[in-house]
Amino acid sequence: MRRRGIPVGLALVALLGACTSGGTDDETPAPETASSAAASVLDPCPEQLDEPAAGAGAVPALAFDCLGGGSLDLARAPGVPTVVNLWGSWCAPCREELPLLQDLAVAAGDRVRVLGVISRDGEPQAESFAEDAGITFPSAFDGDGELMTELGLNALPYTFFLAADGTLAHTEVGPVDTVAKLQGLVAEHLGVQL
Hints:
Largest sheet: 5 strands, mixed
Strand order of the largest sheet: 5-4-3-6-7
Number of helices: 6
CATH topology: Glutaredoxin
Distance between the termini: 35 Å
Strand content: 15-25%
CATH class: Alpha Beta
CATH superfamily: Glutaredoxin
Helix content: 25-40%
Number of domains: 1
CATH architecture: 3-Layer(aba) Sandwich
Radius of gyration: 18 Å
Number of strands: 7
C-alpha cells in the first residue's frame, strides 16, 4: 500500500482559500510555503527502480515528497545500496549524527546513497537546521511522523541499511558517533568498502 502525505502548509492554503467571503474581484495571493519561497538546501531525491522492494513488509510501504524535489517510495527498490536515516531538527543526537551522514554521503559518491526522512518536524525548521549543519543529502519530508508511528518509535535517530533490491539488511537504533563506524556498518551490511 502506498500513501503520500499532504504538506500541512498546502492543506492550510486550501482551507483558507475555501473560507474566503467571495464577491470581490480582488484576489489576495496565497502565502508561499517554505518549499516554494526558496530552493531547498537539500539535494533532490534520486529516481528509484520501477520494481517493488524485496522483502516487502520489512520497511513500511510509505512514500514521501522530498524537500529538494522528487520523492522517496519505501515500497520500491532503490537500485543501489542505500542508507535511510530518520531525523528531525528537534532531535539532539541527530544534530551530532547528521554531519557524519553528510560525510558518509560525500565519501560514498554513487556507490551508496544516503537519504534522510525528516520526521515530526516543520519544513522551515528542517531547512534551517540542514543549512546550519551543512547537510545537502536528499531528505524526504514526513512532518506528521507517519513512518515513526508505523515503526512504533518515540525517539530518533533510526537508520535503515537497504540492499539495492530494497531488502532490509540492517537497522541501527540510536546515533552513530563516527564516520568510521558508519563506513563499517556499510561494509558489514551492504558489502561496500568506502
